[in-house]
Amino acid sequence: MDQTALHRYGQAFVQETPELKHSKLQELSELLSSDTFSTPEKKKHYITASTYSHECNDWSKLKFLRCECFRVEDAAKRIINYWNKRVELFGEKAFQPMTQSMACSDDAHALRINYVMPVVDSRTGDIIKDDAGRGILYIEPYRLTDQVYDRTSMTRATWYSIHALLEDEEIQKKGIIVVFYPRNFSKYSSDRILSKNNITSMRSYLPVKLEAIHCCHPPYFFEFFYALLSTLLGERLRKRVIIHSESDEEVLQTLEQTYGIVRGKIPDFMQGGGLTLDYRGWLELRKNQGK
Question: At what angle do helices 18-33 and 58-67 cross, to 10 degrees?
């Protein structure tokens, strides 16, 4: 692999070995068991999950270690915060598998709004990646226009989409990029609370490396909205927000030539994109697979 592509956004990566994974998983389990690190009250949902949820096994814990570049204490904090937030969002279904028929059984409407979409091959369900192997998450706020929805359900839908991306081990290691397309953004599609929920979920709870955000064709008044949300991104992520305000063709060329995202990997919802993304078809495919 071209190392330039891998380190394009300045993120750190760890060379994994079986010995490293084994030792760090052992350290993580010991830390999570320690009441001096976190009190039983603060980690009670993690304790319940470790007993009743198959999503709290070593495979799942490895996602958190990868997200935090194998910094054990940071991974432990994120795991505890993750389960606390998952219970807050999903209630009594929090410990059920993250599938459309179980944990997300009340979220069919939110999922079908297509506000946050993993970029996938709709026929096979395969995840489409950039040239370094990162997953791509496509977000188009215009899709919220004239929609009636519950914000908590919409946040759960985002969690579902990101969990789907994290089924891929390469994405666990290399992270995701966001292609944000606010061209038709208006006050009718502006939901700062939902945006805050999604940003904080990715930054603080979900075991995902958010490598960069490509903001394509923002309207002239978008700066005001972005100024309100930029504080949530944190200093490091703010530096990796790339604004693309050129013509349709110039933006596509920049994404391909500079950032390794060819137009065939850009959904055709965005002007000039070459990928037909049948997101609802993908949801149906996964539902039939029990996902």
Answer: 100
Sign of the Cα torsion 1, 125, 159, 82 reads: negative
Q: Cα 195 to chain center, whole Å? A: 13
Token pair recorded at residue 43: 């980690």
Contact 124, 168 (CB under 8 A): no
Residue of 114, 119, 117, 116 whose CA lies nearest to 264: 119
Same domain flag for 191 and 52: no
- Rounded to whole angstroms, the Cα distance separating 203 from 180 reads 16
The answer for residues whose C-beta is within 8 angstroms of residue 67's C-beta and 6 or more apart is: 75, 78, 172, 207, 208, 209
pLDDT at residue 21, rounded to an integer: 97
Note the pLDDT tens digit of each residue in 220-272: 777 766 777 777 788 888 889 999 989 999 999 999 999 999 999 998 888 88
Q: Are residues 178 and 284 in the same domain?
A: yes
**What range defines the domain where residue 74 resides?**
15-93
Cα angle 187, 191, 194; round to 5: 170
Q: Is there a single domain that holds both residue 112 and residue 64?
A: no
Out of 65, 93, 121, a domain closes at 93
Q: What is the pLDDT of residues 12-38, one digit of tens each?
A: 889 999 999 999 999 999 999 999 899
Global model pTM greater than 0.70: yes
* Same domain (yes/no): 123, 159: yes
CB atoms within 10 A of CB 247: 11
Q: Could you give the count of Cα atoms lying within 13 Å of 71 in the half-sphere of its Cβ? A: 10
* Dmax (CA) of the chain: 56
What's the domain count of the chain? 2
